[in-house]
Write a structure and sequence with these properties.
25% strand; Rossmann fold; 485 residues; Glutamine Phosphoribosylpyrophosphate, subunit 1, domain 1; 2 domains; seven-stranded antiparallel sheet; alpha+beta; globular
Length: 485
């Protein structure tokens, strides 16, 4: 699960791309990059320039002056395929017969390994271990078949739809087009939105994984790009749409629960409202079970909204009993389990005057591997809490995700093959509560959701997914020796 942004028609591209990526930083913290096109660039004949660095967006600052022109795409990376090396950081680009083609994406290709072998047999050797290179090469090969650029664009994306299985939202830059291309997988598993603005009678367009990255740059009328539809901004700054596929949608439910910012609005549904309703659903469940406590404490920050509404339903005080160290990033999207476990110990600090001698209900967005939940419960009990109940806004995660969230092996999931009671005992809670899948659908307000990690019902073919999960596990083993300072 990454964050992408693209802008066409900017007078201050470097600054706007940087700001836009900062607004998406919560979606990926392993690498960041920007690719731009400047037809008036004094040094580069191609006009194409790229900067990328491992780590946070701020690491791009020393090179930001190299970004110019009016067209750019960028990404913050959360790796689910590949080794996390700088060469895998996006955007990537290639020189094709119809001009330089650049690309950035958010998602995960389930049939990555077989497609990579297919392309190698066709004479295209992969230069990175990033799955977006597969999409890039498929498009580049198709680009050589027509003289008409529009036909090339349409046919290349049709080829992607036919060959690629998985979840993907994509932004492409084409030098010959002099504009941007945006599309999503036909099921719309990953979010992608677009907006328009007019400054001094000049029109520009923006695309991003979340709407706040666009609103912050003064884009307006922000709305989702419909899955299966291509959006093309040409060199005249005109926006065209072409519908290629129509399938049943399967939007990732985990976006509303964890990944997206609280202020975001995805598929026309606000994240804040969804999280509030998830907390209310938990509150009604706990009330029906006669669960009482002295305080409701959220695991910051994504569970705060749900914890507040849960507290209102139960009539129990909402308290900030855990304080987040602002200098530690999001632990869930750290690249391996050792880093995640180490980070929890320095990320959260207990407020003893809130916890000591009290019965506490801890609210978190989800429970994935269980190690973080157990550490939090121990932390709260060590601070003097008498009883600690644990409430998760998301149903038990018992099945792997193959569409862009980094738990691709069932054996690493605490709820895989286990009852709620066994999970409760493992994380050492005095009581454990989950929302149901129907609670989740009702809270988000959409029926066309992907909840495969909870239900085991996958919207796209996963026949090749086991090999992909095994590959990811091998790569995690290689990096297991890394330590946080």
């Amino acid at each position: 699960m990454c964050g992408i942004i693209g802008i066409v028609g900017s007078k201050d591209l470097a600054k706007e791309m940087y700001r836009g990526l900062l607004h998406l930083q919560h979606r990926g913290q392993d690498a960041a990059g920007i690719l731009s096109y400047d037809k008036h660039h004094p040094e580069h004949v191609s006009g194409v320039n790229r900067i990328k660095q491992l780590g946070l967006v701020k690491n791009l600052l020393p090179e930001l002056s190299e970004i110019g022109g009016e067209i750019g795409i960028g990404q913050v990376r959360y790796p689910t395929i590949g080794e996390g090396k700088l060469q895998d950081a996006q955007p990537l680009y290639i020189t094709s017969p119809n001009g330089i083609l650049g690309i950035a994406h958010n998602g995960n290709l389930v049939n990555y390994l077989s497609l990579r072998k297919e392309l190698e047999r066709e004479g295209t050797e992969a230069q990175t271990s990033s799955d977006v290179e597969i999409i890039l090469n498929i498009m580049a090969k198709k680009y050589s078949e027509h003289n008409c650029l529009l036909d090339n664009i349409v046919d290349s994306i049709q080829e992607v739809y036919q060959r690629v299985n998985g979840a993907y939202s994509v932004l492409c830059f084409n030098k010959k087009l002099g504009g941007l291309i945006a599309f999503r997988d036909p099921k719309g598993i990953k979010p992608l939105l677009w907006g328009k603005r007019t400054i001094d009678e000049k029109v520009s367009y923006g695309f991003a994984s979340e709407d706040e990255a666009l609103y912050a740059l003064k884009f307006r009328d922000v709305q989702p790009l419909e899955p299966g539809v291509i959006a093309i901004v040409d060199n005249h700054r005109e926006l065209h749409f072409r519908k290629l596929r129509q399938e049943v949608h399967a939007h990732c439910a985990f976006e509303w629960v964890y990944f997206a910012g609280t202020e975001a609005r995805l598929e026309n549904v606000g994240v804040y409202g969804a999280r509030k309703r998830l907390g209310e659903a938990l509150g009604y469940q706990l009330r029906d079970r006669n669960i009482n406590a002295d305080a409701i404490v959220p695991v910051p920050d994504t569970a705060r909204t749900a914890a507040q509404s849960l507290a209102q339903v139960l009539g129990i005080p909402f308290e900030e009993g855990l304080i987040k160290n602002r200098y530690i990033g999001r632990t869930f999207i750290m690249p391996n389990q050792r880093d995640r476990e180490t980070a929890v110990g320095i990320k959260l600090k207990p407020v003893r005057e809130v916890l000591e001698g009290k019965d506490i209900i801890i609210v978190d967005d989800s429970i994935v591997r269980g190690t973080t939940s157990r550490k939090i419960i121990r932390l709260v009990k060590e601070a003097g809490a008498k009883k600690v109940y644990f409430a998760s806004t998301y149903p038990p995660i018992a099945h792997p995700c193959y569409y862009g969230i980094d738990f691709q092996m069932g054996k690493e999931l605490i709820a895989n093959g286990k009852s709620v009671e066994k999970v409760r005992a493992t994380i050492e809670a005095d009581g454990l509560f989950f929302n149901t899948s129907s609670d989740l659908k009702k809270a988000i307000g959409l029926d066309d959701l992907c909840m495969a990690c909870a239900t085991g019902e996958y919207p796209a073919d996963i026949s090749e997914a086991k090999r992909l999960g095994e590959l990811r596990e091998i790569l995690n083993e290689r990096t297991r020796g890394s330590q946080l300072i």
